[in-house]
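for the writeup, i need someone to sanity check this before i put it in the appendix. the sequnce is what the collaborator sent (i think, or maybe the updated version? ugh). structure was predicted straight from it, no edits. if anything looks off just tell me and ill rerun, i have time this weekend
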Amino acid sequence: MTQKQRFEHIIRWFEANMPVAESELVFVNPFQCLVAVMLSAQCTDKRVNMVTPTLFAAYPTPESMAHATSDEVFELIKSVSYPRSKAEHLVQMAQRLVEVYEGQVPDNIDDLQTLQGVGRKTANVVCAVIWNQPTMAVDTHIFRVSERLGLTTNSKNPLQTEKQLVQYIPAAIIPKAHHWLLLHGRYVCVARKPKCAQCGLSEYCRFFTKK
């Protein structure tokens, strides 16, 4: 099986078995999406969704968050991972949105990464989820699943994984493919004990065939 064929088989399986694949974070606008994604770093979406309703009620706009103190934000997000640094980044991010971007979330990776606390992965997620751009965000799930399935080979870091994936995934479905791989890694191809018996991709999976 060529690499192109492997991608084609796996994409067809996901299209048939996971026609709807989207973020499990809860938000209603680009600003809320950016905040939620920033909070989700090394934290579960479930936990983020528990704190964002109160956070968004207190700070519904970049302008309102820009006038908050990091201590005030910290009190509302202290149950997520690394709440102190995230609180500082959220306030600084909101301030820059107001000062530089007139309160509007940028629609490109480069500008997004000028915001405090926003790295390439977060920028890729926002561009894909909000703007439906062909950006592939790579988290620990996608990094693991891609290597196990054989979609990547000897990838050393998220950027290498990203480049190998976008080489074969059609641009139009990259935003959905991000969620296919992420959700598959979250619920089936888990880190410690992957649920191979429940996986419909085993015949294409390099990890399974080597077991």
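The chain has two domains: 3-22+135-209, 30-131. The mean pLDDT is 96.
thx in advance!!
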